[in-house]
Write a structure and sequence with these properties.
Length: about 650
């Protein structure tokens, strides 16, 4: 009897011990989870896989080898730790780690660097007509409303059953499309061809929820870029008319990366990675963070990988104006878009309500004006690249909304909001129109066409002003206000290939390890050489130096190469507006073309006058370099900034 009692006691103690160990392990796991943070980890490509088309399984195994052993040995823990595995626009992954685990990774072969993920804020229909887009005429007719082009929108999701996303008149997507639409039912169609959610990643969920828009921001931006025609659109009876996006027959692929207020940059990069693999032509991102070095900016990293695959990337400039140096998205391979008004006046300074919208609307002859909130240059991450690139409609924009804000009973619900978030998709849709008309143009060529044909005068033929009616300077408007009808036929373009950015990055004094994060390959700057930022074949000039810099003791020379995309036999003459206190010379002063796609290189010399360095304060001025033919004006804005110290 005593022996049986002893055995029973041992069994009880054994069970108690197991129970204790079980709850102890849970407590340890919970404590570990609370100390975990999401890190972006950059690694080298596997030695055996140097091509850009690695099998996904090889990369997955390679990434998992960097995780802590406890995670790598457990599928469940691995799924919880690994947030995103990047395959197309970057080499690395996002994972939930402790600082100690990241420190231990540094000793592993193939590790490049790691940093905590950042949180990026959102930059929160009449505009087609204001931009010269009319049904059955001009640019829309030439491009068939953007038919066949796929725009990927990274935002808060979409209200999929809105009439703006009807596929009436829209052709099936091109054969290259590989994406998926995770909505149940029949809401996906030839217009809305893809929809994915990236904000539930890393939570151990077997299946992410559908990317429904519970905020409205993503529905608004998506319909601005490529919404179909919807008659009778209005809000509280104002702005009544037919609403549409810039490219009404283009396809939409939606990538939900944001909640109501912000977005994790690890999720944004994962969505860009997926969009490249899916087959988009244009990426539209109405979000971004404050200035950081380009290799830290995950939008810049993803955009470089997308650009390398021929994908155009349009991003909002930010809503931190009118302060100078307040830009987001400063990389030269991104189109950075500021915000302007249209000629429609609504009685709003706040959020639309019944009381302040019922007062009616009018017309503003001074449009477009630069929005007060639109972020200004100069470019902090790369001062030798002028930003913003362009401005477009971003004030009081009527577009689709996933629910009614004015007690409307139909599905055609709309809202009027403002921000560079609204101007960005305007340019994304316009880029889609250009891509439809010129499928062989590179992203840089499309950007060049948009910038060199931009307007710098308002509706009454005067220089563009800001909302205080002061002249808008070059750091507010960049190249000027977009003119889609001119951009389709620019005459000349400034082109840049992916490899041209490597000496530019070397010239920023980035380390080779930092450059590797951006370009996904090893680089030796001593072999490829380094160039000044202003030497990049960009469609603008930004000369940003100290008064003690060599530029002000001797002349500085830069080159640009233009390609003829207009008539074969074309002659362009030089027209210069020289910035104050600066002397310029250009050689040659006449460009004579005899073939389509012929290129000509010209040299520009800048020299400061003595008076430029006489003062104690910083000084800056602006001008332009313009090539004029009998059919085209090709304009490059010039900014010269002289720092006193």
């Amino acid at each position: 009897m005593e022996n049986k009692k002893g055995i029973a006691l041992v069994q009880v103690l054994y069970l108690l011990g197991l129970t204790f160990m079980f709850y102890l392990s849970i407590a340890v796991a919970q404590e570990e989870q609370t100390s975990l943070q999401t890190y972006i980890v950059w690694v080298e490509k596997p030695v055996s896989q140097n091509s850009y088309a690695q099998p996904h399984e090889d990369l997955e195994s390679w990434y998992q080898s960097f995780l802590p052993e406890t995670s790598a040995n457990s599928n469940q823990l691995m799924k919880q730790r690994m947030v995103h595995a990047y395959r197309h626009v970057a080499t690395g992954f996002a994972a939930k780690l402790t600082p100690e685990e990241v420190k231990a990774m540094e000793n592993k072969e193939g590790f490049v660097s790691a940093h905590l993920q950042r949180t990026l804020p959102l930059h929160t229909t009449h505009s087609p007509e204001f931009l010269g887009l009319h049904q059955g005429l001009g640019l829309w007719e030439q491009t068939n409303y953007g038919e066949g082009v796929i725009i990927g929108v990274l935002d808060t999701g979409i209200g999929p059953d809105h009439p703006s996303f009807s596929d009436e008149g829209v052709s099936p997507p091109p054969d290259k499309w590989k994406g998926k639409c995770v909505f149940n039912g029949t809401v996906c169609n030839n217009k809305l061809i893809g929809a994915k959610n990236f904000i539930d990643a890393g939570k151990g969920k077997a299946r992410r929820s559908a990317p429904f828009d519970q905020d409205g921001h993503g529905t608004h931006t998506s319909s601005t870029a490529a919404g179909n025609f919807v008659e009778g659109a209005s809000l509280f009876g104002q702005a009544n008319g037919t609403a549409s996006g810039m490219a009404p027959y283009a396809h939409l692929a939606i990538y939900k990366v944001c909640g109501a207020y912000d977005c994790a940059d690890a999720d944004v990069l994962a969505a860009m990675d997926a969009a490249v693999d899916d087959g988009v032509d244009v990426l539209s991102l109405s979000l971004g963070g404050p200035s950081v070095p380009l290799y830290v900016d995950l939008i810049a990293v993803g955009a470089f990988g997308a650009m390398r695959k021929g994908i155009f990337v349009s991003c909002s400039a930010g809503n931190d104006g009118p302060e100078y140096g307040s830009l987001s998205n400063e990389a030269p391979w991104i189109l950075t878009v500021g915000a302007s008004t249209t000629d429609r006046i609504l009685n709003l300074t706040s959020t639309p309500t019944v009381t302040n919208l019922s007062k009616g609307s009018g017309s503003d002859p001074l449009a477009p004006k630069v929005a007060i909130f639109s972020s200004r240059g100069p470019n902090i991450a790369s001062p030798g690249i002028l930003k913003p690139d362009i401005i477009g409609p971003g004030v009081d924009i009527l577009a689709a909304w996933p629910y009614s804000v004015d007690n409307a009973t139909s599905k055609a619900t709309f809202n009027i909001i403002s921000g560079t978030s609204m101007s960005c998709p305007h340019l994304s849709g316009i880029a889609a129109l250009l891509k439809s008309s010129h499928p062989d143009w590179s992203p840089a060529a499309i950007k060049s066409a948009i910038m060199t044909t931009a307007d710098v005068l308002n509706l009454v033929g005067k220089p563009i002003v800001d909302e205080w009616l002061r002249p808008a300077d070059i750091f507010a408007i960049g190249a000027g206000h977009v003119n889609p009808s001119k951009a389709i036929d620019p005459g000349l373009i400034y082109d840049i290939q992916a490899e041209d950015y490597i000496p530019y990055l070397c010239g920023l004094n980035y380390t080779e390890k930092q450059i590797r994060i951006l370009i996904q390959q090893t680089v030796n700057c001593s072999q490829v050489g380094a160039i000044e930022e202003t030497q990049l074949n960009y469609p603008s000039f930004s000369i940003f130096v100290s008064s003690s810099h060599k530029l002000w003791t001797q002349s500085a020379h830069y080159t640009r190469t233009v390609k003829n995309v207009g008539p074969a036999n074309s002659v362009y003459n030089l027209d210069l507006l020289v910035p104050n206190k600066t002397r310029m010379s250009v050689n040659p002063q006449v460009l004579t073309f005899t073939e389509v796609n012929q290129t000509i290189t010209y040299q520009v010399e800048f020299l400061a006058l003595d008076s430029a360095t006489a003062g104690e304060d910083d000084f800056w001025s602006q001008g332009y370099l313009r090539w004029v033919s009998d059919q085209h004006n090709v304009t490059s804005p010039i900014a010269v900034v002289i720092e006193s110290k």
